[in-house]
Amino acid sequence: xxxxxxxxxxxxxxxxxxxxxxxxxxxxxxxxxxxxxxxxxxxxxxxxxxxxxxxxxxxxxxxxxxxxxxxxxxxxxxxxxxxxxxxxxxxxxxxxxxxxxxxxxxxxxxxxxxxxxxxxxxxxxxxxxxxxxxxxxxxxxxxxxxxxxxxxxxxxxxxxxxxxxxxxxxxxxxxxxxxxxxxxxxxxxxxxxxxxxxxxxxxxxxxxxxxxxxxxxxxxxxxxxxxxxxxxxxxxxxxxxxxxxxxxxxxxxxxxxxxxxxxxxxxxxxxxxxxxxxxxxxxxxxxxxxxxxxxxxxxxxxxxxxxxxxxxxxxxxxxxxxxxxxxxxxxxxxxxxxxxxxxxxxxxxxxxxxxxxxxxxxxxxxxxxxxxxxxxxxxxxxxxxxxxxxxxxxxxxxxxxxxxxxxxxxxxxxxxxxxxxxxxxxxxxxxxxxxxxxxxxxxxxxxxxxxxxxxxxxxxxxxxxxxxxxxxxxxxxxxxxxxxxxxxxxxxxxxxxxxxxxxxxx
Length: 506
Fold this sequence. Notes:
By secondary structure, this protein is mainly α. The protein contains 25 helices and five strands. It has helices at 3-35, 43-52, 65-77, 81-84, 86-105, 110-121, 124-129, 135-156, 161-173, 179-192, 202-224, 228-242, 249-255, 263-275, 280-296, 307-323, 327-352, 360-368, 370-373, 378-391, 394-397, 407-416, 452-458, 477-481, 495-502; strands spanning 400-404, 425-427, 444-448, 463-467, 484-488. The protein has a five-stranded mixed β-sheet, with helices on both faces. Strand 1 (400-404), helix 22 and strand 2 form a beta-alpha-beta unit. Helix 1 runs parallel beside helix 6, helix 2 crosses helix 22 and helix 6 packs parallel to helix 17.
């Protein structure tokens, strides 16, 4: 065989390997496209949709990228859940493909590439990320891309890859602030490994400068607003720790962030990076964020984006071991691995994916997945508010406002309310508080999502006018914690003073 023929054969094999990775990602994407139109928007999605209508360089709960992308989605698809969630589906598909490509860059053949990609495709958190439009979905992809660029940097020793790394870090900071923990891992790994030689490279500093330039508008926005997101994150973190949401961090690395039966892959991958002088930087990119999250009591899913790079190395090492076996044991090991990973993934998918619009599968998913329960009842909430508005005397209907207690209700009234001719919501939660209240203020208020005690203490002449629930009888935050809807008069304090007290993080 001539060298030209050998190159053509390698090229054909590479294309076939890529087709296999794309095929895995396409199957997962198709599942999401078929199922993402069921139930309704999640309360977090409703918040992003609301913020997408008020674009800025920053928002209280998160940086500006996700609402910006959602604004594009609204322009393209309107309020289509399948259309708006398409961005998340594409992001997860790319994460699967690049996981396989990392295995290829590390020297893995088709078995290693497919094993790594399948391990991610059938892991619970990546499966979930394709079901909703969340900033965590894009954050996951940026972690994967950075790891791929680092592997390319270390493999080729071409320092220009620092530009791609720095740019993606900058985009990551414009997506979710946990990118800071990953950056600590990257910089710590550079200092602790032979990669420290890049500290003398202008490309390294150019990449870091590029990342800073990309996220600089959000930094300036934070400075202008007194670094309000820092106060928000401190509040949310204290709440999560108090409510036990940070418990079980280590166990969740095995059954939430990754497929339980893929543990041998990512553990082997971590050990493989530690033993490999060239790629040791990637071990620290996992270990340093892990230590920071454990010490700081982070939530279990925060580290999920670090596992694809571990799966890639683990799959390469696993492929080498399997190839040392004779044919029958090799087939047995491969069969057992893929059967367990796919079987476990399908079981977990019944929890995280809305496979069915009714019946046993739906009941199973709603029973075991609190996020899916938070997609139920928003349209009915808006209908109830509209019905109460229509029941008011004409003089009150002409000057009515809707006060809401949380960002889910805010997003529901703002996005779904126009179909019922409802006014924009009045909300003191997160970024909505910065937008103020109507001028002139309404004289009659429909109050949603606040306790009776708070409503009567804060507003005048309150009465119960309706109830919040859903036809499916699903117990969620709205039906359980905020069952009553009130009609009230104006706040007891003048509106400017009331507004100062109305700010809330949630």
